[in-house]
Amino acid sequence: MSMLQIGILGVAGVLLALQFKSGKSEYGIYISIALGMLIFASLLGKISLLKDVLNEVSNVVGLNSDYFKTLWKILGITYAAEFSSAICKDAGYQTIALQIEVFAKITILVLSLPVLSALLQTIRGFLV
After folding, report:
1. What crossing angle do the helices spanning 25-61 and 65-91 adopt, rounded to 10°?
2. With 12 labelled, which of 63, 82, 109, 111 sits at a CA distance of 20 to 30 A?
3. Residue 20 pLDDT > 90, yes or no?
């Protein structure tokens, strides 16, 4: 889907969800979850293309593929955390949304520690 189609789909979904706001407000949340999943599904093709290009660049430059695996994990965690946190906020559960965000940040920090360690070792090698 193009950006214009995604934008139209998003606005139409919001307008539809607003129709249910006065009566059955939980339907609005269901609509936002379904739209979010649909938009993510349409994004998968572009993510796959990006992953292929980055893997090719990694092979040409000779970088360790573990760093790119870590990068993809971090991107996945970020998207999942943002998506679930936004849904919790829309439903009125800001405390749970905040806990999801904190958990994601700590998980990303833990995942990035080996990369930070390798960077520090490289810098140390330059200084010695």
Report:
1. 170
2. 82
3. no
* Region of residue 63 (phi > 0: left; psi between -120 and 50: alpha; otherwise: beta): beta
Query: Whole-model pTM?
Result: 0.78
Q: What is the dihedral of CA 47, 108, 65, 116, to 10 degrees?
A: 140
pLDDT in tens, 56-85: 888 888 777 788 888 889 999 999 999 999
Question: Which of helix, strand or coil describes residue 123?
Answer: helix
Distance CA 70, CA 118 (A): 13
CB atoms within 10 A of CB 83: 17
Q: Which two tokens stand for residue 22?
A: 């006065």
- Domains of the chain, by residue range, sit at 64-128
DSSP-based three-state secondary structure for 49: helix
φ, ψ of residue 113 in degrees (nearest 5)? -60, -45
DSSP state at residue 35? H
